Amino acid sequence: MGVIFFVRWQPRWRWQLDGLANSAYKKRMEKLKMRKHPAWLAAGLLLFAVLACNLGNKNKNSNSNNANTETEARSGSVIKDMYMAKDDGNGQPGDHTSTFAPGDHTIHSVATLKESKAGTEMKFSWWIVDADGTQNKKIKDIDYSTKTLENVIHGHLTLPQDWPKGKYKVEVYVNGNLDKTVNYTVQ
C-alpha cells in the first residue's frame, strides 16, 4: 500500500522542474504508474483454482484420511479375507476348511487385512452357536495388536479333549468394531 501511495503522491515542488528535468520526471512517473499485469492476474487465478481444487479434495477425502481403519470398520470391512483352517501339526494354519473333526484340537481363524498398520487392535471372539445342548455361549476372546507390516493375523483355539459336535462361529473385531464373522462346524 505504501508503494501505491508513493506512486500517486505528487510533490508540491513539481512546478519548479523545468523542461528537460520535467520530461524525465514525467517518464519516470509513467513507469511507476499502476499497470495491468496479465502475468500476475494469471498467477492469481491459477493459485485460486489450485486452492479451490485442494479444498474440494480435502472435503471428499477427509473421511478416509483421518482414520482409515476406523472409518472402514464403521462403513465396511477392514478385513480383506477371512477363513478357518486346520492345524498343520506345527501350530500354524494348514488346510482351509469350515468343517472340523472332534479330534482337531487346534482350530485356526486367519484374517488378512486390507492395509497393514502397526497398532491395529484385533479381537477374535470364539462362540458356541449350538453344540451339545449349549447355545450362544462365548468360549473365549483373544486380543492382539498388530506390528509393522503385519497384515495376516491368525487366532487359534485349542481344546485338550475332543470338541463337542455342533455349530460354532468366530467374530473378529478391528479397533473395537465387529468386522467379520465366520461360521464353522464340528462333526
Indicate the topology.
Layout: H1 2-8, H2 19-32, H3 38-66, H4 68-75, E1 79-87, E2 93-96, E3 99-100, E4 106-113, E5 121-131, E6 134-145, E7 152-158, E8 166-174, E9 177-186
Parallel strand pairs: 3-9
Antiparallel strand pairs: 1-2, 1-4, 4-7, 5-6, 5-8, 8-9
Helix pairs in contact: 3-4
The number of domains is 2
Provide the structure class: alpha+beta
Strand order in the sheet with the most strands: 3-9-8-5-6
The string of secondary-structure elements, in order, is: HHHHEEEEEEEEE
> How large is the radius of gyration?
36 Å
CATH architectural group of the largest domain: Sandwich
- Helix tally equals 4
Uncertain segments = 1-7, 58-75
Name the helicity range: 25-40%
The end-to-end distance, rounded to whole angstroms, is: 86 Å
- The CATH class of the largest domain turns out to be Mainly Beta
Report mean pLDDT, rounded to a whole number: 78
Outline the structure in words:
By secondary structure, the protein is of the alpha+beta class. The protein has two domains: 2-71; 77-186, Immunoglobulin-like (Sandwich). It has four helices and nine strands, in the order ααααβββββββββ. It has helices at 2-8, 19-32, 38-66, 68-75, and strands spanning 79-87, 93-96, 99-100, 106-113, 121-131, 134-145, 152-158, 166-174, 177-186. A five-stranded mixed sheet has the order 3-9-8-5-6. It has a four-stranded antiparallel sheet with strand order 2-1-4-7, with no helix packed on it. α3 packs across α4 (68-75).
